Each structure stands twice: as C-alpha cells, then as structure tokens.
Amino acid sequence: MIRPALAEAAGEQCRILANGDAALVVEFGDRIDLTLNERVLALADRIAAAAIPGILETVPTFRSLMISFDPSRIAHRALQRRVLVLLADAEGRPHPGRLWRLPVCYDPDVAPDLADAARHADMPPEIFVSRHCGMIHHVYMLGFLPGQPYLGDLPAELALPRKETPRAKVAAGSVGVASHMTCVFPRATPCGLNIIGRTPATLWDHRRGEAALLAPGDRVAFEQIGFEDFRRLNELAARGEFVLAPSDAAGPMEPGP
Check: CATH 3.30.1360.40 for 15-87? Predict the structure, then answer.
C-alpha cells in the first residue's frame, strides 16, 4: 500500500491498494461527498487522457476509483508510479458531465411510498414532488444493477430512512429515495428504498453503443409527467422507440436545490 499526498488544493491524503493481481483501487476518503467524487472523476479523466498501455477499465465509486489492468502489459509497481504522477495533479473540479432530463410519473399507481414519504417530510405530496424535481441530481456512480445510478444530494427535508421491510420486487424504472440519495432501477429488483415514482426511460440497453444511459459525473433533472403520458412513453420504450438525448454536454450546474 502507498499513501501519496494529494495536491494541496485537495487538502487530504489518499491511498493506493491492490485489488487482486489485476486491479488497483485509489481511495480518496471514507464518506459520500461531492468534493471527493469530483477527485475520483478527475483522476479517471486523467487516466483516460494519458492512455496508459495495459489499462483495461476504470470504475468510479462514491469515494474511490478501481483501475483494472493487464499484468502482462504493465506491472503493478509501474502502474502505481504512473498513477502517483497523475495524483499529483488530481485536484477535483466540476466534471463536464451531461445534463439529462428524465420524465418521471409520480402517480400513486407507480409511486406506492410517495404519500408516506411526504408525511415523513411534513409536506403535501405535490410539494415533495416539486422539490424532488426542482433540483439537479449529481450521478455519483453506477452500481448494484447494470446502469443503475446513485444520485445525490437530497436536501435534509427530503431525506428518508430505508424501509424496515424491503419489497420483494419493484418495477423497472422505479425511482427510490433513502438517506440523501435517489436511485433509479433499470430492471425489476428487490428493493428497500422508498418508491416515489417511475420513469419510462430505458437506463440500460446492451444494443446501444453505450449500454448505460447515464455515466458518473452526469447531472439529472427529473420532470414530472402524468400517468397517461407515462403509459404512452412506456409503450414506446418497450418497442425501442423512446430515445432520450442529453440536454447539454457543457458547463457545470450546481447539484443542489
């Protein structure tokens, strides 16, 4: 394990850990924090730009970056040295991610926990929805299911505990909240989050050039749609005819209310 100091502007140390014989993990901290995640994404960008022979993939998480490599093309220690050089200039900065506007239906038929969530927040359901739609959500990482985004950061008044008894199954497209995070589930799955809506958007499709619709560092704005519009768009999505494009790909927006 090596513990290099980060650039002064980063203000913290990180460490490089071996993850088997074909991957390194660079840890930037031990919490969910936008500044840490920006450092993770900044290092991923630098590695991509450096085009180091032997690196196969980088996988960002909330607070760390996994770097998979081919040991027959680059040695473990040699890769560590290259990463250390990149870390010296790894100050976090807003990631130039894309802005997506995802339609979400908050009708009770597809939002079984919205009423309880609103009661917990001590506000009417329509105000809860308005606040959930009235902010930009930062994509911290993808995980658990292929293409599933973990989105932050909900304000304190919308933060909820996980359900005491998880559901055995929620539908594909379900939008769930717990703690300060929102997740959108690309396929049907067991789930312990509070389901407050559903999107007709297809978040994972292996037939696309990029199977995952969203990427770490992207930003998401949820836009409320009615139940009939949801049904219509859901039918189009089932036929592969509902295609979303990012609203922009330049200029950071603050991921907050």
Answer: yes
